[in-house]
Amino acid sequence: MPTTSELSSRAHATVSEARRLFDSGATRPLAARVRRLRALRAMLTDNEHDFEAALWSDLHKGSGEAQLTEIGVTLAEIDHTLRHLRRWARPRRGPVPASLRPARARLVPEPLGVVLVLAPWNYPVQLLLDPLAGVLAAGNTAVLKPSELTPATSALIARLVPRYFPDGSVSVVEGGVPETTELLAQRFDHIVFTGSGAVGRIVMRAAAEHLTPVTLELGGKSPVWFDDDAQLHRAARRIAWAKYTNAGQTCIAPDYVMTTPDRIPALVEALKVAIADLWGSDPATGPDYGRIVNERQFDRLVGLLDGTDVVVGGDHDRAERYIAPTVVVAPSGDEPPAVGPEAAHPVLREEIFGPVLPIVPVASAEQAIGVINGWDKPLALYVFTSSARTRRLFEQNTSSGAVVHDAGLVHAAATGLPFGGVGASGMGAYHGAYSWRTFSHLKPVLRKPLAPDTLRLAQPPFTDRGLRL
Ligand code: NAD
Description:
Residues 10-444 form the Aldehyde dehydrogenase domain. By secondary structure, this protein is of the alpha/beta class. It has two domains: 4-219 and 427-441, 3-Layer(aba) Sandwich (Aldehyde Dehydrogenase, Chain A, domain 1); 223-420, Aldehyde Dehydrogenase, Chain A, domain 2 (3-Layer(aba) Sandwich). Helix content is 40%, strand content 17%. The protein has helices at residues 4-24, 30-46, 48-59, 63-89, 126-137, 151-164, 177-184, 197-209, 232-244, 264-279, 295-304, 365-373, 388-397, 432-438, and strands at residues 92-94, 104-111, 114-118, 141-145, 170-172, 190-194, 214-217, 222-226, 254-259, 309-312, 316-317, 322-323, 326-329, 356-361, 380-384, 402-405, 426-427, 440-447. Strands 10-13-14-9-8-15-16 form a seven-stranded mixed sheet, with helices on both faces. The protein has a six-stranded mixed sheet with strand order 5-4-3-6-7-17, sandwiched between helices. Helix 3 (48-59) crosses helix 4 (63-89). The termini are far apart. The structure holds nicotinamide-adenine-dinucleotide. Residues 118-122, 127, 145, 147-148, 176-177, 180-181, 194-196, 199, 202, 217-219, 251, 351, 353, 379, 421, 426 line the site of nicotinamide-adenine-dinucleotide. Nicotinamide-adenine-dinucleotide is lined by residues 118-122, 127, 145, 147-148, 176-177, 180-181, 194-196, 199, 202, 217-219, 251, 351, 353, 379, 421, 426.
């Protein structure tokens, strides 16, 4: 075990090296950015099978899901960035008010410097390398800290990065809390953190010491509204897919479903059919259903089932870290039901982050909106209805990182849209142009020619009339 002072000097050396390279200007030219994005792309495509194997070992992620949600989505982000980078990076003309003319202004994007990327375990490739694409596109150097809870993926990335970025423009620090703590003591120019709100607060506090800006991609309880007029089987299949992909360990997974009491039996049946259709009658034996990341999370999730009415699934196996796709009818007892710190049961108090889906009976869409607004702003809100009026009702009367109608998760794959939370679900956003913008400083550069010297009008001695800008 390295001592704290060893960790501290290693963290210092890593960041100093990244800063030295950034200060040399080597990462700034557009051609250098494109080269690094291509290197990132090659790192993924040349080693696809190793990435798949690591994801299988860490999370039992099948190759189809690994391709779709980790490798494919990251490649799509890199390709989108390569396609648009030239346009994003071009200086643009800035407006100058008549009172300052003659003058010319431009907005010149410049990189920030050294960016720290702290990633969680649930999508250990995507959530580390997708932000990295934006960091490199903007001309920065990067320090990556993969999650220690997905050791195979972390080790693979630590082994590959020096091969694909031999100049040190990207470096990897492996480890957990002690390593991250020492990294956070260093001065970065931006930190992008994906993880829990609790650690997000630690990151933001550490960043404040250096006035380092942060992007925080956090979590929370993302609700679903399942309307009486929603198409039962199609909607249930989409909810099931969004919920149980990666065994529910997705920050934007539907956390709970609200629907009217009369609709519950039909929804439960439709979810049962959808689960069997997607993962077979025994998901434990299929190749496509994931496992819980570790025993701690497994025990927490099984504990959440206590005192609930399990209507689908519920079986689990600790040795395998397997929990079946599970639906419970939430014990609320409250009218209207509470979701948040005041809720009657932990399944409605905590972010579930696993394959347990509570159904919460509510009287109406308006009451569902009241439940959503009763607590932290969620990362995503999913609405299943065939009524445009109801869609508008949710859009206009709630606040969340994103709203998706008639589907779940898919907005994360829309590279042109900003991805991020609001309030407790995070701050800042990334993906595509929004990543590039997050990791650049848009610097106004203004030239006011010395002649004609109209600035004299703004200088003393002032006349009685003064000057109005
Ligand atoms: P986490 O907050 O425990 O860990 C995230 C990172 O922080 C890891 O790299 C970890 O090593 C580091 N870390 C943990 N404890 C630390 C400490 N005390 N000091 C410094 N660093 C520390 O999160 P997690 O369990 O890996 O992921 C689950 C959470 O992440 C959920 O809340 C989920 O909603 C959220 N999440 C959000 C998004 C998003 O895009 N918004 C995506 C995935 C996950």
